[in-house]
Amino acid sequence: MLGPLRMRGRARALLVAIVAFASSFSGSLSLAEAPLFRPIAGDGLGYLELPRGGTVYHLLRVDLARHALRVADARREGRRAATVDELGREVQALAAVNGTFFDEKYRPLGLVASAGRELNPLRNVSWWAAFLVREHASGSTAEILTTAQLQAIAPAERGPFAAAVQAGPRTVAAGQPLKLKEQSAARTAVCVLDPTHVILLATEGAAVESNDLAAFMAAAPADGGLGCEAGLMFDGGPSTQLWIDAPGLDRHVRGGWAVPNALVVLPAAAR
Q1: Does 174 fall in a domain?
Q2: Predicted TM-score of the model (pTM)
C-alpha cells in the first residue's frame, strides 16, 4: 500500500498531468470553461471564433431541425471550380465550407450528393469516410460512415441523401480521437455532436497538426473541446475556405484556389 504522503504526491502529479493535457488543446480556455457559441441568424445557428496557439478556429454550430445542409456543385458549362463564397452566394446560403478532394482537372474525388441526387460516385478508399445528411418525415439526421459502410448501402439508396461529402480521414469515432498520421496544414472539418447538431470548422493562421485537431474535436466542452461524437476532415491546405453571410455576422476565410464543391447551410425558410 502507498503511504498518505506518497498518495497525495501521485494525486498532485495526476492533476498536473490532466491540466497540462487539457491546456495542450484548449488554448486560452480554462479547464472547466466550455466554448460559448453566439446565436446568429435567429435560432439554429451559432458561431464561435476561437484563438489557439497562433491558429484561429472558425466554428459554426448548425441545428438540422432549423437549417438544411446541401452541396453546391461548381461544375457547369465553361466552369470546373469556384470559390466557396461564390458557391454560397449562388444558392443564397448563409454559410459554406469547402468539401471533397479533387484532381488536377478539378474533378471531385469521392461521393458527392445533394437534394436526393448523386453528383459524383463513391470512391473505394478504405481510410476515407463520408459526412451524410438524411431527411425523414420526422426531420434531418447527420452521421459519418466509413467507405465500407457506404459500400454496404445499395447504390439506389444513396441517391436520396440530402447531402453527402466523402473525404478523410476521420478524426473522431464513438466520441474518441483517432490516431492519425502526423501532418500539419490548414484544416476544414465537420463534427457530428448528435444526429441533429453538427459543427463546421475551418482554421486560419498557423497550421494545425492532425492529432491535435482530433483531440480538440473529441474533448468534452467542459475541457475546452467540441465534444464530437464523430468527426471528419474535408480537403485542407489551400482548399480550406469558410464563408458566412448571416444577419449580424460576416466572415470569410479565403483559400489558395477554387474548389469543385462546397457544403452549404441554407436559411431556415429554405427547408
Answers
A1: yes
A2: 0.87
Q: Is 16 within 8 Å of 23 (Cβ atoms)?
A: no
Q: Cell 427547408 appears where?
A: 271
pLDDT tens digit string along 184-207?
A: 999 999 999 999 999 999 999 999
Domain that holds residue 195: 34-270
Residue 177 located in a structural domain: yes
Whether the link from the prior residue into 169 is cis, omega within 30° of 0, is yes
Read off the amino acid at residue 104: E
Give the chain's domain count: 1
Whether residue 55 is contained in a domain is answered as yes
Q: Which tens digit of pLDDT belongs to each residue from 115-124?
A: 999 999 999 9
DSSP 179: P
Q: Report the SS3 class of residue 84.
A: helix
Q: CA torsion, points 23, 144, 139, 268, in degrees to nearest 10?
A: 60
The DSSP-derived string for 20-67 is: HHHHHHHTTS-TTPPP-PEEETTTTEEEEEEEETTEEEEEEEEETTT-
Does 5 map to a domain? no
- pLDDT at residue number 246: 94
Largest CA distance in the chain: 77
Residue 204, amino acid: E
